[in-house]
Amino acid sequence: MAEILKNYRDAEYAQKRFPRSFTLEMLTFTVSALAALAMIWMLFSPQVSIPAVVIAGVVFTLSIVIVIRLVMDPDSVRAHQSEEVLVVASCMLGYMKDGMNQQAAQQICNLLLPSTSAIAVSITDCEKVLGYTGVEAFENPVGGPIRTSATYDAIEEGETYVLYTAEEIGFPDTKTQVNAAIIVPLKVGGAVDGTLKFYYRSGKKITETQKSIAEGFGLMLSSQMAAAEYEEQRKLATAMELKMLQSQINPHFLFNTINTIASLIRTNPAKARVLLRDFAVFYRSTLEDSSDRILLERELQQTQRYFSFEVARFGEDRLELKVNQTDDFSSMMVPPFIVQPIAENAVKHAMPSEGKLTVSISAQIDGDDVIVVVEDDGVGMSQEACESIMHPESSTGLGIAVKNVHDRMKGFFGPDASMQVDSQLGEGTRVTLRFPGCAQRASQSQGAEDALEAMVQKDGAGEDVLRRPLELTLEDIAPAL
């Protein structure tokens, strides 16, 4: 919400602000006008003061020189134009965060119209109007079909069209205020995805400057559309990686867990009931955790559920999990399936043929970062295997899960996110995950939750209303579990 308000303020700033040179021009122009009036008054007064006339003349001359210098100074003009373009580009980028939809297109049209001599600005895709502002907006509703043949020609040819008459534009045989236009195709990856159109009252309004402005804005929009599409593809790739990781649930683990629970039904029904309930929660979370981030505490709980099944299968004398949280992680957000695959690999690949495997998971806050360490005392691996585990060509066994976790960490938290693997043969393996800025974002989210909790506590009745449905739901569910 804050970002939307900022973009709105930027748009107002881009449309309504006055450059600094305008203020200086007005000041010097006012001084020169006063000096001229003073000279005229003194020349026609009965007693003429020569020194005063000379001073007024000097002030008038200097003021005129300063005004001319401000108007003609190319550096000031270029700086002003560059600043305007940067403000417009920043606003456009904010509007297109979710791609070129109707809302973004309409906001961009509203932003661009004051920057040109056009009387209307429109953005279309290849079939319909996405945004329109200016004269004859009623005849060009957002969401309506493209009306002009020239727009279809520009889409088909992929070239900029400069049109000087309404007939060239292809308007129906009706009276229109639009008699000239510049139509710029918007290209993404070599294909035309839409158009940016500037309409003018007369062909005389289309100058070389207007052509450059139109083509510049068109290129800018095309670049930002390509960036938005790239970001969308990145999100889809991340989601597909998560789906792939979800689909890698070992069927042997599924069958072994069901068989373990089945064998306990007669020997230890209470434990079988607990395992069955945990297995239902575990499997449901495995299938549903496709959101961008989940609570770190929830990810650790999911890992503990997994271990409860493996401990039931192998026995407490063969497998043990220790979880150590030195800080409060109730509001820390991490990608799903970020800790459990590492711990699962320890069970699959580190368990010795005899003796007990102990896997330890610790989490702590280091400044604004969160560090999670998964460590085992199993068979370990050689230095060569440890170095190749993160190699892109690792495509089987241990390499798939580790590389998947590493890549998704980079995708969610940026290049500062890291995964470090240390191992010694016969001594065990240690995997250190660092989530940069995770603690800082959690504190900001917690601040908002604390504010909401304060509002709830301020109104006792409201607190009961908010909490009662949750209690009822838990009471309803408890007997079934």
Mean pLDDT comes to: 75
Main structural class: alpha+beta
Q: Tell me, what's the shape?
A: elongated
Spatial ordering of strands, largest sheet: 2-1-5-4-3
- Unreliable stretches (pLDDT < 50, length at least 5) are 1-22, 451-481
β-strand number: 12
Order of helices and strands: HHHHHEEHEHEEHHHEHEEHEEHHEEHH
Q: Main beta sheet: strand number and arrangement?
A: 5 strands, antiparallel
Q: What is the alpha-carbon Rg in Å?
A: 34 Å
Portion of residues within helices = 55-70%
Question: Could you characterize what this model shows?
Answer:
With 481 residues, this protein is α+β, with helices and mostly antiparallel strands. The protein has 16 helices and 12 strands. Strands 2-1-5-4-3 form a 5-stranded antiparallel β-sheet, sandwiched between helices. Strands 7-9-10-12-11 form a 5-stranded mixed β-sheet. A hairpin with a 2-residue loop joins strand 4 (180-188) and strand 5. Helix 2 runs antiparallel to helix 3 (50-72). The radius of gyration is 34 Å and the shape is elongated.
